[in-house]
Design goal:
The chain is of the alpha/beta class. The chain contains 7 helices and 6 strands.
Length: about 210
Amino acid sequence: MLARHGETEFNVEGRWQGQSDSPLTDRGLAQARELGRALQHDDIAAIFSSDLGRAMATAQEVAAPHGLTIVPEPRLREIDVGGWTGKNGAEIDAEFPGARVGWANAPAHQHHPCGETLSQVQQRALDFFTRTMPDYLGQTVVVIGHGALNQTILIAAMGRPVTELWLGERIDNCQISRLEWSAEDGLRLIELCDVRHLEDVGSLRGWRTDVR
């Protein structure tokens, strides 16, 4: 199972986090708790999380009912957005004119200044699955990641190239996607972005691709 971290202060402010960090909001903590409740009855063998704080804080809520220790994983970090880190849309537009339009329309071709491309993010994410999943065949594993990172994983599980992104608003905070992995076929998507467990707490949508 693949989930995104809970809502953060930077999410609300419309600031790009990348590999920096921002604490979960009260709603983000509530989302994480609801994620934990949604998965509390699953027979989970292991929980892997991006080692960034917002993901680890979310993973704690999933791990607690199972008494599991979270495995922090640098390959699951969010895309490094380089010079965009910590900036909002207006600040990015002033410093990098036209760049956000390129991200919204053709993100796979965007190379953030001093950062990463989506292809580079996907490569490290898929390397994590290839090297880790053979130890958990037939078992349920939870992976806590990030918006852009998770999209690169999901597009691979759909059997489509990274150039076909964008999944946009469907990657809500604390959504759950269900996947299968095999050595022969790699990742395969079973269910995309379940948010039924978030009905009572809600979710922030759309700010990243809203270019005005």
